Amino acid sequence: MIYILAFIVLIGVIVFVHELGHFWAARSVGVGVERFSVGMPPNFIDFTKTNKGLVIEIFFFSIKNGKLTWTKIFTTTLSSFKKPSETVYTIGLLPLGGYVKMKGILDENMDSDFKGADDELESKNPLQKIWVMSAGVIMNLILTFFVFAMIGNIQGDSVTENNNTVIDYVVPEQPAEISGMLPGDKILSINNITVDSWESTVENIEKNPKKTVPISLERDGEIISLSVSLGSKPNLSTGRVDQEVGTLGISKKQKPVELNFSESFIYAYKETRWAMTLMTSSLKMIFQGNVSRDEVGSVIMIGDMAGQAAQAGLVPFLFLMALISVNLAYINILPIPGLDGGHIALILIEVLMGRKLSVKARIRIQSIGMFFLISLMVFLIFNDISRVITGLFS
Q: Angle at the Cα of 107 (from 106 to 111), degrees rounded to 5?
């Protein structure tokens, strides 16, 4: 049950914030919003502000003419709300994200009924349309920032206890242990370059992935010279996972540091920048074909990750939320029809052409994009199911 609840909260918050960005942006430039839904269809509860008050409608299964149908089962009006609104606020039965239905937009619904009204998205200038279509991505990045700020406020940060070159820990079965290095050894030079701080030690190690380098160290007043074959790993510390850095298998003692309000925001800025770098380099690897099938997944993998993170505690769960929020932002801004980036690409194409594409042409482009996205979704789900089955029988 915790896996399901964690997945609903994770996806619900991230997609809701994304759609809220579109909603606010649309309203800011005078685009009418017909429906704002928390959750996906079928509609479970509708709230509509009318001249008579707030109309509340509840939908559920009922039997009509011997058939089970989804229909309205309850309606009431609260007279305490008098300001009318054209927007229907909905709670969907499926608690997975949400959506915004704007007037005059050719989206995945393939609605081509444009009337040329001032409150339609099609009636707005290119900059206004780009603002509306990019607002969801912007909101996801803002969400990432504030989630990281929460993490910084909750758990603080950690720093090394000192900056000298004395080894505090040696990782088992890594190059340092294999070459005979011990805790308490003081590193003097790496690859014939003198090191006088822990930062310079790490820097010189990372410069030489998979290389055999001379390392000079001091142990009990004695100078020892070693030849060490360094390992390698993706550069996760900077987010550049498309780059390899050298590894030795040593570390320093860390001490926790509490962060005040302003320091939490500085921490959030650094972590958000790191997450954006991570997603940029990850997408680069995907497009270059350097990512295996086992490293990509669908909502099934996300659900599993969400459940594990929730069991591990609040901070791991928030960290996963921040990463997936950035992921959603980056995926959505890709120039693929059906995504926000696809809409923006079409707007820019129309600006360059000096005219609008025909509705028929845009519907065809949208159809191709939706086919690609659905095919990708099916592939990812199949990949996840195959991975689960393999895990059960291995």
A: 55
| Helix locations, the chain, DSSP H | 2-28, 126-155, 175-178, 198-206, 261-287, 299-312, 314-333, 340-353, 359-393
Backbone dihedral angles phi then psi of residue 38, each to the nearest 5 degrees: -100, 110
**What are the CA-CA distances from residue 393 to residues 386, 387, 388 (Å)?**
11, 10, 9
* Closest C-alpha among 103, 99, 101, 100 to residue 124: 103
The predicted model gives 292-301 an average pLDDT of 51
3-state secondary structure at position 228: strand
Tell me the pLDDT tens digit for each residue of 10-64.
888 888 899 999 999 999 999 999 999 988 888 999 999 888 888 899 998 888 7
**Cβ contact 219:188 at 8 Å:** no
Q: Measured between alpha carbons, how far is 175 from 213 in angstroms, rounded to an integer?
A: 11
User: For residue 31, what are its two tokens?
Assistant: 């685009």
Report yes or no: 103 and 33 within 8 Å, Cβ to Cβ: yes
Q: Peptide bond before 42: cis, by omega within 30 degrees of 0? A: yes
d(CA 37, CA 229): 57
Residue with tokens 């989804």: 70
Domains of the chain: 159-255 (2.30.42.10)
**Interaxial angle between packed helices 2-28 and 126-155, expressed in degrees from 0 to 180 and rounded to the nearest 10:** 140
Half-sphere exposure of 318 (CA within 13 A, CB side): 19
Going by C-alpha positions, the residue among 361, 394, 200, 380 that lies closest to residue 296 is: 380
Render pLDDT for 102-155 as a digit per residue (tens, 0 to 9): 887 766 554 556 666 788 888 899 999 999 999 999 999 999 999 999 999 999
Q: Exposed, middle or buried: residue 390 (CB in 10 Å: 0-12, 13-18, 19+)?
A: exposed
Q: Which pLDDT band, with edges at 50, 70 and 90, does 293 fall under?
A: low
Q: Is the pLDDT of residue 308 over 60?
A: yes
Among 228, 224, 190, residue whose Cα is nearest residue 211? 228
Q: Is 295 exposed, middle or buried (0-12, 13-18, 19+ CB in 10 A)?
A: exposed
Q: Which residues contact 7 (CB under 8 A, 6 or more apart)?
A: 299, 302, 303, 306, 307
Residues 6+ apart with CB under 8 A from 390: none
